Amino acid sequence: MPELPEVETIRRHLETRMLGRRVTDVPHLDARMVKLGETDGPTLKHRLTGQSLIAMDRRGKYLLLGWQEGGWLVIHLGMSGRLTMQAPDEVLRPHTHLVVAFGDMDLRLSDPRRFGRIGWLDHRASLDRRLGQEPLDRRFTGAYLYGRLVARRAPIKALLLDQAVVAGLGNIYADEALFLSQIHPRTAAETLSRDDMGRLVRNIRRVLRNGIQHRGTTFSDYVDALGRQGEHQAHLNVYGRAGKPCPRCGAPVATEVVQGRTSHFCPQCQPESSRPVERQTREIRGDTVKHAEDQLDGGQSERGQRSR
User: Fold this and answer.
1) Cα-Cα-Cα-Cα dihedral of 150, 154, 159, 161, to 10°?
2) Annotation marks residue 21 as catalytic
């Protein structure tokens, strides 16, 4: 499933290439995909036609397109969704559910599994209320995470995937952040200290920024808005590397199902006691974020502070 880095990569591409363009037509819209907000398919098509795109934003894993006359087109890519810019004469991909025509450019959404969803919001407050802090926002701090989870007995991995706690974090980047923090994914959140939470917040930021830097992670379906696969899969430490040597200590990477989600971790670097170990015998893969950024527990938002 596309997570924050993948959706942010698409947002950045669309922002640089699509802003200011006017919708000339919505030649294709599968009404079964309209599951967000209170708008049906015909009404959504009517609202989009003739409008100029003036804003691109992201909230968690949701992409938001803002329009000159107000309102937001909201898109969630689900597990297999692809949102790409294509020339109008390009052959329509199978399982294409939305085509928004901007004259010399189409914006097309395809989704073979049809777990994605689209919709219209007059105001985005309802979406903002449902989601937790943006992990690249200055308000996402160790104190915030500790305050939300200090009394929770659930595994830390499961709570990190709760979009009401951390907006946009998913399976891949949660595993990577827990590895860098040397925390076992099954550790009860209530056993983690303020320092543990501060370290975890810094590493969540680290893995998300690395993911964005490499245009996202592609294992099967994800491509960016230009139709290119991401490159971050070559920089992962544990996710998708079961049985391969840990880049820190060399022990085989293990997997375990934590509340229904397969988790990847190093059983030596991430003992169930959750206390950090001192081994630093190998360079960690994909560790490309500046040291100065790692020390900021309340750094500036990656996207700045947009008005919401």
Assistant:
1) 170
2) no
